[in-house]
Every structure is written in structure tokens, then in C-alpha cells.
Amino acid sequence: MDTTEFRLGSRQAGTGSLAGTGLQVYEGAVARRGQGPWQLGARFSVYDDPPPRPVGGSLANMSIIAVGVDAKREIGRSGNLSWAVAGSIEGLRYSTAATGTVPAGANSDFLVGSVHLPASVRFSPALTAYFDPYIAFLPQDFPAGPGFGTNGFLGAGAAWRAAPVLSFYAEAHVPVAGRGNTLNAAGAVTRATAWTVGARLRVAPAADLDIHASNRVAGTLATSGLVLPPGGDKAMVGVTLVYRPGQGRDTAGPRLVGSGPRPLQGLMLRSGAILPQGTRRIAFAAGTRGTGSASLALVPDPGLQFDAILEKHATAAPGGGVVAPEIDTRYMLGGRLQLAAGGARPVWLAAGILAGRDIRKPTVGVIYAETTASVSLSRRLSATVQAHGAAWGGADVLGLGMGLGAAVTDALSLHAEASVNGDVADTWALGLRWRGGQGLAATAAVTNAIGLHGHGTLLAGTGPRVVLGFEKSL
Q1: Pairing relation of β-strands 127-137 and 119-122?
Q2: I need a surface site. Which of 44, 62, 75, 350 has the fewest CB within 10 A?
Q3: Which pairing describes strands 381-392 and 62-78: parallel, antiparallel, or unpaired?
Q4: Are 13 and 23 in contact (CB under 8 A)?
Q5: Does the N-terminal peptide bond of residue 325 adopt cis geometry, omega within 30 degrees of 0?
Q6: Within a 10 A sphere around the Cβ of 319, how many other Cβ atoms?
């Protein structure tokens, strides 16, 4: 059976001394395996933040960015034992403003690669051990001194399936030959073990959530042994979505697809119902105070929605000891999961996450999460409660939102929403939505929130603004 798997996620360690979300690694991958023994893939990882402690006497920003292609071929299988060979060719940028090996302002770009000999042993249906000895061909020289060079690693780990939808795992990459895989506090190359522990939870027929902690600073085949300077002793916590298109598409139960009347979509609050399966929606909005947004939402499989958003916020009002991120245009990527859908009890429950940065340097990263419950009180009336929060650097804002939507006619609905946001000013939105034929819809609203997506719904602006929106569902 042909299989395709996508992975996208991030991990972070917050710190009050740095802007943005703190220390953050973004990772993504795609792998494709056909009927034969070959698997082909591509991966990327991005770290673009200061180190957690000074490296070479500096807390200046570091860029550790890797992107590459890889291939794996199964070469043997006997009983519960299987083994393979894998390799990668990649580009790596490892640069910082000031360390003992990389001079100020240097952009250090390198061609790197790796050769792996992975093997796995299945001890029982629930327990598997795996081994991965490999050689990573890393930079021989940095602009101001020796690089990591060619390193030999011994990788090992185990995975235990505790339930049909839940498994736990742990792995380590130990450098056993070569100069090293990180920088120490003085900025010199040194060795440190790379490790990851985590759990994997099936959240939809085609999707898992991988929740983990790790000291790794990169995630491609050649760079998976690199750890966060200095010394790799800082752990980061992360979440990765693992998506297999089409898996379970025809067997999803009512928990994911729902029945009965769907709750109305909100203005700044989200609905407890994700978009129907198969929906592709594009939306645009423009408002006073220089605001605007464009978004794309896709629901390819039951219970799973993907979101991509560009938005320019209004200026946030000061207060609550919170300094808002910059107002220049920012991107947000994320998705939503349908946790419960309608049925005999007309309650819809969904959870979502968005992560992104502004475009103009120095960028500020923000992560936003929400859990939303909506109830269809009648065919024309729905109520929503949303717990949501956002974090950037040492700042965080938590809010509790409440909304009411009433369909005046089959095409026109009225909406009133508010969010109580702790130490910062509360936000609100009032408006109407028109739904026409062929998937067209339009919105007119007044709100004091600086944006209609993500953390923009948690921060009040310096005054109300008017927003007009248009959307098309395909």
C-alpha cells in the first residue's frame, strides 16, 4: 500500500529575557513510500533565536537552518528484525553574531549529508526497539575556526504502545567520534548527547499529535544530532502534527462528522464545529486603522482542519504590563481538531493552535491555542464558549470568550461576542454575516480587537474599528 506522511510542528522553551516566544525550533517533513522497499522524503528545520545562555560571551541571535532530501531502502527482514540503509543531502546555515568560531555578521552556509544504517527489533506487538548508527558529514570549518567536522553517532530508542491510540517513546543520539555536535559557553566545538522523549496520540483517523521534550536544535537526517548551544543542557517542549492523507477517510464515525444543526461561525471567536470535510475556504478582510487579513482553510479528512493566515494588526492599547508584538504583517500556520460533534447532545467541541511570526526583522514569534465549545440551542440560535491564550517571550495572555449567534433568515445572521482577558483590556465584536449561494459569504463587524485571528483577538486596540470581510468556500 502506498503511504504518504507529513510532519509539521515546533518546540520551545520560554524565557522572560528574550523577545518572541523565546527559544523555538520549527520542523517539517514529508515521506513517501510505494509498494517496493524505497522511501523518499524531504525535511527542514529552523532555529532563529538567541541561545539560552551566552555563547562566546554573547546572547546575539543564532540561525541554525537545515533543509534537504533523503532516501531509505529496506535491505533485509527476518522475523521481528528489519534493517535498512538511508542517506541525505542537505543545506545547512549555522551562523551567529559572535562566538569563538563564527565571527560577527557571518552567514555560514554549508553542504552537509549523512549515511545511516537503521534497524528495528519488535519484541512484542506493543514494544519495539530501534538502532541507528550513522555518520554525519558536518561543516569542517567555520569562518573563524574549526567546525563540527565528520561525526559518528550511535542512535538508539524504544517505543511502547500503551493503547490503540497512545504510544510512548524515547531516543538518544550519542556522538562517539568526531569533534562534536554543539558549541560550549566559550564558543568552541564540544560533544553532547541529543535526546528526545515523548508520547504520540491518535486524534483523528488520519492524524496523530506527537508531544515531546528534546534538546535537539535541528531535525533533518544530517543535523538530528545537533543540540542547542551552549552544551545541549536546555530542554524544549514541543508538539508535532503527523498527518497521513486519506487514512480512515471512509470510516469516520459521528464523533467527527456530527449530525443535526451546525453552530454558526463566529467573528473573532471560533466555532466548536470545524468546517465540513472537503471544504476549501479562502477569506479576505479589510478594516479601518490599517488592518487587513487573508486566510486559507482546508479540511481534507474527517476531524482535521488546516489554517494559513496573513494578518496586519491595529495598534494595541497599552496596559496590563503586556507589550504587544509588532503590528507589521505576520503569518500564522496551524490547524484545528474536532473533538466532539453534535449528535443527540447538540454540543460541538474543537481545539486549535496557531504559530507564526511577523515578516519584518527582527521577527517576533507568537503561539496561540484555543478550545471552543458551541451548542445549537435551536436551528437558528447557537452559543459559544472559548478558552484561549497566547504567549510571546515573557508575556502571556489568557482569555475566556463568550458569543451568541442568531440567524434572522436562512441567509442573514447577527453576532455578539466578548472575551474577558485577565490583566489586559477585554475585547468584543458585534456584526452580521450574509451567506449566499455557491459558498459565498460576507461579514460586516465593529470590534475593539486588534485582529480577527490568533492573539489579535486577545488584545484591545486604541479604539473600535470597522471590518468588512468576504469568503468563498469551494
Answers
A1: antiparallel
A2: 75
A3: unpaired
A4: yes
A5: no
A6: 11
| 341: nearest Cα among 272, 275, 392, 294 | 272
Q: What is the CATH number of the domain that holds 121?
A: 2.40.160.40
Residue 248 lies in a domain: no
Q: Please tell me whether residues 157 and 298 are part of one structural domain.
A: no
Neighbouring C-beta atoms of residue 264, cutoff 10 Å: 24
Residues 170 and 300 in one domain: no
Q: Cβ neighbours of residue 91 under 8 Å, at least 6 residues apart?
A: 66, 67, 68, 109, 110, 111, 112
Give the pLDDT band of residue 356 (cuts 50, 70, 90): confident
Grid-cell match 563564527, residue found: 102
Polymer length in residues for the chain: 474
What pTM did the predictor assign? 0.82
State the total domains in the chain. 2
- The residue from 222, 243, 264 where one domain ends is 243
Whether 100 contacts 144, CB under 8 Å: yes
Q: Taking a C-beta distance cutoff of 8 angstroms, is the pair 188, 137 a contact?
A: no
Distances (CA, A) of 464 to 64, 317, 428: 41, 11, 9
Peptide bond into 245 cis (omega under 30): no
3-class DSSP state of 353: strand
For the stretch 286-309, pLDDT in tens is 999 999 999 999 999 888 999 999
What range does the domain containing 328 cover? 254-473
Phi, psi of 432 (to 5 degrees): -135, 155
Q: Is the residue at 285 inside a domain? A: yes
